[in-house]
Specification:
Mean pLDDT: 86
Number of helices: 6
Number of strands: 3
Number of domains: 2
Radius of gyration: 26 Å
Largest sheet: 3 strands, parallel
Order of helices and strands: HHHHEEEHH
Shape: elongated
Structural class: alpha/beta
């Protein structure tokens, strides 16, 4: 039967998810460090069993230590729980260049709630481009769209088009509230009008965008499921062996 210290290290390495070529060196380094702590505690009169438990408690949760070993910002960080942080981050919460999660923050963000330069989600906030159910940002295509350039069922923006529109300038739309008309629209707003075509094109191809949305959602959930299954399969903390 493995010692409690070895089981602890097993759990740390499960969450660290390092290549096998690196795992043994990491294990030995951590083990040496923990054994030194145990010796120091035992020298103070604590029983060895208590010293081991105390050393592990002070060292921290295997999950937290393991995730730290992945590095501050790995290329890919997939987690079934907690916050994933990486160039490509996938998890219930995700922070990365490309972030996919229930709550996602990234240069490109996809999630139930997404914040980024390019954002897609149920609620999406994006500096440049947004597609979603409720969107706020630069160029926005959404059921309810609020942006500099907005297209949607309900669209509010500097320049906007769609079903019900409230805008500084609405070039077209049967139910529009527009401050300016074509004859007196400022040049800046007129220069934004071509961007309505980009948002409108995506809006018109909703039947294509929606399957892509669900494909990304399924892929994200599947990768999280695989990560959770990998952890459960290798985390034998409560098992003999």
């Amino acid at each position: 039967m493995k010692s409690i210290l070895d089981r602890y290290l097993d759990r740390v390495l499960v969450y660290a998810n390092k290549p096998e070529s690196e795992s043994e060196a990491i294990r030995q380094e951590l083990k040496d460090h923990l054994l030194q702590k145990v010796e120091d505690l035992a020298a103070g009169g604590v029983s060895r069993e208590e010293a081991v438990l105390d050393a592990l408690r002070k060292h921290g949760s295997p999950k937290i230590i393991g995730y730290r070993l992945r590095g501050p910002f790995p290329w890919i960080d997939i987690r079934s729980q907690g916050t994933a942080r990486g160039v490509i981050a996938i998890g219930p919460r995700a922070v990365g260049i490309f972030a996919f999660g229930g709550f996602a923050i990234g240069l490109v963000a996809f999630g139930a709630v997404a914040l980024g330069l390019f954002s897609t989600g149920g609620f999406a906030l994006g500096l440049l481009f947004v597609w979603g159910g409720f969107g706020i940002g630069g160029i926005v295509t959404a059921g309810i769209a609020i942006g500099a350039v907005a297209v949607g069922g309900v669209a509010i923006g500097a320049v906007a088009a769609g079903g019900k529109v409230i805008a500084a300038w609405a070039p077209y739309g049967s139910e529009s509230v527009s401050h300016y008309a074509a004859k007196n629209v400022p040049p800046l707003l007129k220069s934004l009008a071509p961007l309505l075509g980009i948002a409108g094109c995506i809006n018109r191809h909703f039947a294509i965008c929606l399957p892509l949305f669900y494909l990304m959602l399924f892929s994200m959930m599947y990768l999280q499921y695989r990560e959770g299954r990998r952890v459960r399969a290798k985390d034998d903390w409560l098992l003999d062996g």
